[in-house]
Automatic annotation (TrEMBL):
Name of the protein: Histidine--tRNA ligase
GO biological process: one example: histidyl-tRNA aminoacylation
Binding site for L-histidine: E83, G84, T85, R113, Q127, E131, R259, Y263, Y264
Gene: hisS
Catalytic activity, as annotated: tRNA(His) + L-histidine + ATP = L-histidyl-tRNA(His) + AMP + diphosphate + H(+)
Aminoacyl-transfer RNA synthetases class-II family profile domain segment(s): 1-345
Enzyme class, UniProt record, top EC level: ligase
Family: Belongs to the class-II aminoacyl-tRNA synthetase family.
EC number: 6.1.1.21
Amino acid sequence: MSKNIQAIRGMNDCLPSQTPVWQKVESVLRNVVASYGYSEIRMPVVEATELFKRSIGEVTDIVEKEMYTFDDRNGDSLTLRPEGTASCVRAGNQHGLLYNQTQRLWYMGPMFRHERPQKGRYRQFHQFGVETFGLNGPDIDAEVIAMTARFWQAFGIADKVTLEINSLGNSEDRAAHREALVSFLQANQDKLDEDCLRRMETNPLRVLDSKNPDVQAMLVDAPRLPDYLSEESAEHFAQLRARLDALGIQYRVNERLVRGLDYYNKTVFEWVTDCLGAQGTVCAGGRYDGLVAELGGKATPAVGFAMGLERLVLILETLGLTEDIRGAVDAYIVVAGQQAELQAPVFADALRDAMPDCRIQLHCGGGNFKKQFKKADQSGAQVALILGDDEVANKQVTVKYLRGQKQQTTISIDSVAAELANEFQR
Ligand code: ATP
Ligand code: MG
């Protein structure tokens, strides 16, 4: 026998038993963004490598070590997208969506990063993201954060996630802070690990992001970002906080929150949870006013976020919130007898017309009642609808309730829809 071919490590199948949860999650997210009047954008999963190098930054974890990059047959360097923002900006520039306009967009789809696979960290994972363009005030920052807060409410996990926010200031603020930070780090070089020493040269702000506890202890006395914010940046941040306060959205200001990508300025935020162990960030984003111009467009302010769907699904599963999610089938039609076999598909279609939201599976493949009821049970259906030749002759259907105690009953074929509607409402 030939050897089975396996999926690539860290790239998961989503099996039929799991897809109902994913569909539910996706539909809740779609409904929330729709309720804010956002439009969907779909981008290719492969882009020119240069796009990610230029936007995410050469000295970031993603570009340094996580990208799936290859030469295509023409010798062009292509990369499986590690995130959506760069592609979204590229598409916006290319199609003239950004110049002198405002856009409120969302996207959803697979992203690829060559990381060490573990719980909550995969090589193909899925993000739901939002990007807004053309708005520079704190009102839109507050809106996108408030929208994420509504996601948690909709999923019933608002008390399991906490919001951290920070302001990185504008590029001049950052430059001034950077200079002071580098001096400080140079004076404390002996306490820096190899990674931080490298970052000190290339991207000093990211030293603040270090997970090394010794480094973190030393950073207590480091120059603080808030002390370097211009009046305008500080005001922007204060206004954002006032709006979050007015909305009753709680947050913690985390002065060390800098995010791993280069393109952020002013507002940055993360939603974190302690349900998932080390992979605690479910959603992260911020403002990136320089990126559109960096990628060749006209200067356009922007703010957005991306959420990791695997992590969201894991939270819901950990909390037991996925158990009630309906499977693929609501009603399963069991068939016995020649007349019944002819009439069952007609009955099924009439029921589908009468109940567009009801998922009706018709038994195929014959077999006795025992076999058919086993299939009905495995399908996850709430009810089996039994159509035998007697039922066909009398224009009746027998309804067997597969969950709960209710007695089976034989009713007129015309009242099946009403009976099911009643049953599914409970
Ligand atoms: P982390 O610090 O966990 O590596 P990140 O800063 O690299 O996250 P972002 O680039 O901000 O992550 O991506 C936004 C979100 O996408 C993350 O908060 C997370 O929920 C999710 N995410 C990122 N990388 C992965 C991955 N390899 N597997 C699963 N989800 C991921
Ligand atoms: Mg990462």
